[in-house]
Write a sequence for this structure.
DNA sequence: AAATAAATTTAACACTGTTAATTTTTTTAA
DNA sequence: TTAAAAAAATTAACAGTGTTAAATTTATTT
């Protein structure tokens, strides 16, 4: 009976969609078993027939958001720019995604993750999301011998720390207060990492 | 009647002490109006006679922890080291403090702060805690003309982003998994920022 | 010692996540 | 097509959360 499984997947989709809408619209503080159930159109315990618990549902949202973020960054290929330049503009797109969806940033980097269990892979996927999303571009750079593999790894790590730090202070602590200044300093810091000589 | 005020301060102290013990021992997830009240020796609503709400109490803890962190970093002056070297070892002390008290890191950088109001100064104190705690050392460096003011500010900001990023991934996402590796890469990254030529 | 003020506690409310029992709906078998 | 079995969904309930209002106890003044 694959019909049954299809049905189950559809209903899970209703919950995931409802949860994503609440997360993007009102934030994780408004996401409760009751609120998501109501939006999905079910009573407040039916959800336990389809998800282990609320965290389980949230994990599906995280995977969806990761894909959205990746598409947002890699979607519009800027055409004929050089390697590091296109990487930089992609990093700025990555930053813009989380500025547009601060709840997703919270979900990825702030939210305390309990019940790791079988979700460790997803955790790693999102903590390394910047690296993962740009992996092809970095590989290409190495293949064209524009950078050495070891240097790429160092730069990847440095970018992860700095970009996450930038977003943490801007989204979570409103530092700096102005969007324009934030984007300016963000670009400066990224520049300093990927163009270390200048 | 200053006697009355003294009494009030003492009782507030009981609550703050109880809250700090819970935060350090069991983490913020275990800090509730009921748990802190029980440890302070009062019924579960007496707290509202001394604090606006639970967040108000937490803010007093934050200020205490900030002072503790500052003392931990500046307490043991390493004697006759040169400017940047002593700054680096102090930054490593700063990191060690939060590794020892991960709940304090959460309180400082992770916890969503509602009801800003009159607490904005405290927020700024802790988001700029690394800069604030080392300010004298930086000033001395400028006074001795070992660094220019503008460069100091750039390095301060870079350190803030990197150190917070490092702690976020290590404490919150267990990346890297090993303490030794974490401290090694932390020192590397700090080195790269404060000794940019090498 | 009696009246007043202050401090503390109990009761209650509206939330939260989650489990167990019950009811409704859907599927299978005759 | 109707009866039995299985599945799905719902209601009730529990233990927890923060917070307010009313009741009670304690302390201070007259």
């Amino acid at each position: 009976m694959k019909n049954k499984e299809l049905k189950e997947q559809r209903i899970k989709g209703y919950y995931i969609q409802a949860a994503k809408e609440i997360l993007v619209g009102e934030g994780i503080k408004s996401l409760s078993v009751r609120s998501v159930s109501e939006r999905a159109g079910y009573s407040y315990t039916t959800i336990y027939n389809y998800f282990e618990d609320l965290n389980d549902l949230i994990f599906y949202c995280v995977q969806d958001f990761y894909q959205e973020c990746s598409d947002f960054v890699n979607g519009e290929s800027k055409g004929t720019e050089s390697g590091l330049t296109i990487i930089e503009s992609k990093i700025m797109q990555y930053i813009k995604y989380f500025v547009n969806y601060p709840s997703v940033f919270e979900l990825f980097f702030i939210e305390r993750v309990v019940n790791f269990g079988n979700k460790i892979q997803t955790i790693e996927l999102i903590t390394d999301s910047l690296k993962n999303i740009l992996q092809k571009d970095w590989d290409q750079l190495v293949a064209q011998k524009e950078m050495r593999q070891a240097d790429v790894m160092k730069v990847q790590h440095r970018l992860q720390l700095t970009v996450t730090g930038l977003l943490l202070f801007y989204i979570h602590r409103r530092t700096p207060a102005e969007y324009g200044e934030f984007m300016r300093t963000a670009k400066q810091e990224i520049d300093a990492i990927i163009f270390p000589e200048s």
Notes: Residues 32-34, 44-45, 48, 53-54 of chain B lie near DNA strand D (CB under 10 Å from a C1'). The two ends of chain B are 63 Å apart (CA to CA). The first helix of chain B runs from residue 2 to 26. Chain B touches chain A through 24 residues (CB under 8 Å).
